[in-house]
Amino acid sequence: MTTAQLVLLVKSIDRRGMGYNLVSLPLLRTEMAQNGCSDRKAQDALIFDGIRSGFLCPSALEGRHGTTQRERDAGIPQPDGSRWGFLSIRNS
Fold it and tell me: In whole angstroms, what is the distance from residue 60 CA to residue 71 CA?
């Protein structure tokens, strides 16, 4: 999977959902695995490449009623102790 394919996958998931330009990492990781990228390190590398390239924008994992273990497990830990849990397409 390439970064361009990842961006297309994020767009596809968003279109099938509510269309708010916010895709959860648990869902994205599941779909990445279904598309041939099941290794967590490879997934993280693609996600970071999409962020560094300016195509994707991460958002913190948060929830009014808390977060699930699945969401926390799929999240990307940050140095401040928070976790990224969502990605959106950066509009240019």
Answer: 11
- At residue 61, does pLDDT exceed 80? yes
The candidate with the shortest Cα–Cα distance to 76, out of 59, 52, 89, 53, is 59
Domain coordinates in residue numbering, the chain: 1-54+69-75
pTM of the model: 0.88
Q: pLDDT value at position 42?
A: 97
Average pLDDT over residues 57-62: 91
Distance CA 88, CA 57 (A): 5
Instruction: Give the SS3 label for residue 88.
Output: strand
